[in-house]
Specification:
The chain is of the alpha+beta class and 93 residues long. The chain has helices at residues 52-67, 76-84, and strands at residues 4-7, 11-18, 21-30, 35-43, 70-73. The chain has a single domain (4-91), classed as Gcn5-related N-acetyltransferase (GNAT) (Aminopeptidase, 3-Layer(aba) Sandwich). The chain is built from 2 helices and 5 strands; from the N terminus they run E-E-E-E-H-E-H.
Length: 93
């Protein structure tokens, strides 16, 4: 399964899609040119417990490092992941 991304420099989404159906999604919005806010994470019930939420957060971290931007994990799930992963502190806002 391959995480895909949509980004229009205002809003974005990391998602997993199969046969035209979104099975996992994490949405974000820009808060200026150098910050994004992760506001929602959702995984289809059929895939819960497989670590897809973590993979979505990891994809956002890679994106933020590549773009040299910070992340504010407002979503409770993303915030919990950031709290567990001290190696994400460099991009946390």
């Amino acid at each position: 399964m391959n995480i895909q991304q949509y980004d229009d420099n205002k809003k974005g989404e990391f998602f997993l899609e199969s046969e035209g159906k979104k099975l996992a999604s994490m949405t974000d919005s820009y808060a200026g040119p150098d910050k994004i806010i992760i506001d929602h994470t959702e995984v289809d019930d059929t895939l819960k417990g497989q670590g897809l939420g973590y993979k979505l957060v990891e994809a956002s971290v890679k994106f933020a490092r590549l773009k040299n931007i910070k992340i504010m994990p407002l979503c409770p799930f993303a915030n919990a992941v950031f709290n567990k992963k001290s190696d994400y502190n460099d991009i946390r806002f």
